[in-house]
Amino acid sequence: MAPPPEQTSNKPKETPLGENRQPETAAKEGSFGFMDAVMELKKFFTDYPSLLELGKKLRQAQGDERLYVWLSFFSSIAIAAGATGLIYSILPFSDKKKKAEALLRYLWLFLMSLIGKDFGAKNSWYLKQIWNTPSFRFVQGVWLVACLVFVNSYQGSIISTYAAFKMKPKYESLEDLMKDKSVEIGTYANSFPYLCMARLTNTTFEPVFLRAKENLQYIGEGIPPWMDPVEQGKAVIVGETGHTKYFIGERFKLTGKCGIRVIPLDFCAAYIALGSRNELSNAFVNHFNIGIQRFNEGGLSSLQKAESVLFYEICTQTESSSIHPLDLTDLIGAFTVLGVGLTLSIIYFVLELITKWSQGRKLKM
């Protein structure tokens, strides 16, 4: 942890001993620094409205992009439903429903198919007469391909974004623990996290250590008792990363509960030391170093870690999150497939009508 900030005062800073400094030079440097500060402050207030305007434009651009995506979705559904309704209204058969009723039904069909629902029974009134027509089969095939591209494009991003934001831990830093006085903080007695938190003494985060010191935990058998309060948001445990993940994974394996996340803290991240007494011989130290080297080169450390946190990784489904779940450039392939397919479907439908019209004319002659 960084040391606490030094107390500042209005008393002028004294020149260190042994430094031969002219008064005029010091005055010039002081005035130069003051003028620089004034200019920077003036520049900040001058550019502040432009910064606000820039941020507003960026938020508006992001909102417009998402609006374009959703408009493209609904437009594609409307175009596909309109093409199917046109096929239904033009094909010659009796007992037709109203055009508006058929169009609403097809809108509902394509909307439901976008989330994985099928078109329904073939003997329904809206599919019975057009199911075997090549034009509708073409529209259906193109639409299903477009849905496949939609799913592969944005479903993973939405799921990972949901996991990143909806399953976001309540406390992610010591500052969050400082703000919430009601949450209990615990750690294991005589453990590395406890020794590391002891370094918070005489810092701004000392209350965190004092609260953890009053709620010491001890390693026992079975599932630790602190897991239920932590999952309910009433407590926070500060422990070793791999050890905590192992307990969460074992709890998930036994009970199916998976509402606890492990967040690494910045302080003491690299505070790992191995000490030995001076009485140890060099031969023993070298032999010990060779053993550590073989352990690391053989990948045993990674294997042990993978086995210990396997169920935690299964529980959390760790994935890379995305802050842009809906991007028009990612979906352009699906819209291209849909647009080209519907255009070809309409051309095919016109050719189908011309063929039937010519065949009927030959029969009349």
Automatic annotation (TrEMBL):
Q: Which gene encodes it?
A: AVEN_219576_1
Q: Which family does it belong to?
A: Belongs to the glutamate-gated ion channel (TC 1.A.10.1) family.
UniProt xrefs under Pfam families = Lig_chan (PF00060)
What is this protein identified as?
Ionotropic glutamate receptor C-terminal domain-containing protein
Keyword Membrane in the entry? The reply is yes
* GO annotations of cellular component type: plasma membrane
Boundaries of each Ionotropic glutamate receptor C-terminal domain copy? 69-342
Species name = Trichonephila inaurata madagascariensis
Cellular localisation: Cell membrane
